[in-house]
Amino acid sequence: MAHIDDPETQRANVAFIRQAMKQPLLERDHELDLARRWRDKGDQRALHELVRSYTRLVIATATRFRNYGLPMGDLVQEGNVGLMQAAARFEPERDVRFSTYAAWWIRSAIQDYVLRNWSIVRTGTTAAQKSLFFNLRRLRARIAGNPSATGLSHEDRAQIAQTLNVEAHEVETMEQRLAAADQSLNNPLSEAGEGEWQDLLADNRPSPEDVVIGMRDGRMRSHWLAEALGELSPRERQIIAERRLRDEGATLEELGRVLGVSKERVRQLETRALNKLKVSMMKRVRDHGELLLEA
Question: How far apart are CA 5 and CA 70, in angstroms?
């Protein structure tokens, strides 16, 4: 559904378009001279003349995207951003007209704006998705011979996929995205207005009871671990603390230098300490499952 501007905005858009169409077209030599003056000398007046002369190209490009439900004024402004980017990057030495070079930047800027704002869910994140978004309707209408045709067959999807050099499943996914408009979760479930769609969303967060139980179990495990650590020798406690109870545990070699032993000896002491902890913790629980943390 196309966006409809209010009367005041429509008048402003018409005035802008008329003004843009009054700007004279540039001769090739004058165009290159303006581009050089802007690039080499930073001549603002040259930049403004160059940009104003090709604002009509922005308007023509924006008009092609007016059926995506976005304000025409916004499309034109995004196209102007692309035009300014083209002016900043244009190289007069290349044998190409500025309009030809700028057309790509203008179209790219407008397409990016459409993709960002057509839906609250980002639609085109890859080159294949972007190509599908802007070409699927046209190809679907050509294949079916009906601009409003829906429901592509498997053969139709395969033909479009081959034409755009994408996978057939990507065609089906984009077809589903384009067919379903955004819906608010605050919309009522029925005309009676009782309940909203968001009421049907499952809450995957733990219940208050589970939170309390988890906190209690966590405190209990911490108490058991503290008691088990108290049964280790000072050197074993140091190894466990440095290797297992820190975000970035010390290496065997580092601990070996601190304790004055080889790293293999540190590994042996660590293994023995872990076994002691395991035995000690097992003595303190009725059910071994109480030691496991739920994911």
Answer: 10
